[in-house]
Write a structure and sequence with these properties.
- By secondary structure, the protein is of the alpha/beta class.
- It is built from 15 helices and 19 strands.
Length: 497
Amino acid sequence: MSLPRPRVLAIGIDAAEPALVKKLMDQGELPSLKALRDHGCWGEVRSPAAIGSGAVWPTFMTGEGPAVHGVYSVLPWDPRTMNLVRLTTDHLTPFWRGLSDAGYAVGVLDVPFAPVIGLAGGAEISEWGAHDRVRGRMLVSPPGVGEWLARTVGDHPLGGSRVEVSGPGDRRALQRLAAMCRSGVRLRGSLATRFLREWRPDVLIVVFPEVHHASHYLWHTVHSMVDSPLASQEGASAGSIPGLIDVYREVDRQIGDLTRAVGEDATVLVFSLHGMRATRGIPTVLDPLVRSLGMAARRSWRSGSWSARREEARSLARRIVPPPLRRLYRRASRSLFRLPQPYVPLAFDWSRTIAFPIPTDQHGWLRLNLRGREVEGAVDAARYDEVCTQLEQVLRGLRTIRGDRVVADVLRVGREAGHPPEHLPDLIVHWDDHALANPLRLASPRVAARPQGTRFTGQHAPAGFFLLRPATGRTLSLGAVVAADELHRVVQAGMRA
């Protein structure tokens, strides 16, 4: 007699903040998650979020660290072309390939960054309602899943155009965004429940990315509950805006439906690979800093290609054009092109550049222009440690003109491996909150810069969490802390138990 299906239900809540989840559970706001905790265990997930949020899901799905899989951003640096390129994850092999090859039926629903690999006896849906768009379009396997999806729930509210939010005071846009995220959560829960009943997988892995998307814009509605506000923000009062808690509540309701659908004979794992915290933007001071230190030189307008000149002109326009016109341009661009621009050329004179910043969505990323690694490298390998040490000392010593610390920590990525990383940044800067001053003015060297992304009130935080409820009569033991590259073993152990 065959075992009942499914045997494992793994639910990711992308960027759910552990402190907020615990507080809401204790207040009775998340009864489904609280029930799982009461009948199972709770712990911390440590992931490579210190490198970048783009590294966490590839680490979970492959069981390998960023130094191996090489993913840290949706627009990584390519040393062969000396430019940013659009990320592809087709080279990654997720752990569910092994489960499929072992004869298990596996369902995968919107795991961020996951490639569609064509599972035998399973089904995959990718970028149906993703926060991070790697390909910019939905992919499914087998092809019949697409027709089934259209009949079952249709399009995700976030699958097409996104809501343009100018900041925490943009109430109308925030109301629309919150409503779309809650609707997306309901549809995703309904889709996953139908998937369980109609496809009957041995293991279903489903991720709710709506929390991640909403948290960037709505964190000001909850941040006083879990962290100290960075500063009062214009229009940051929640007021009549539907808050982020409403999105969390809806996720909890859908998790309740899913756990009831699988019953007590299935192991249930709920997890987040990183959390969220308050922010006022993304520091941009690395570019003027390395140029003031004589470590980077901008390419002259005459020496650049026409494509590079065009991108530099666009960058200038984005800085000087009023926000309403920029929003109009972005809406028009999305209506004309399905994908964002594949890259923005970095306008450096590589023959005179020793180190350069890589565009980022959070941490500061610095890469050395290393000979033998970068096609136009200018730094000898023998000087690599010397230059990294010099930069680290400068960064750790940065102060504002008021004497406040700018950098909280600096990571040397190649230190443990003993050699420069092939794909990752060489230095990763963790900013102190004082780096978010607008403008940020350094005492020495005397440079200034304004942060980008000031419309966001939430930013990634390093720690995640897990909730594990073993199937009835089965025992699965976990420590208080689990690394992201080991978390998939919980799913595999649940299949064997």
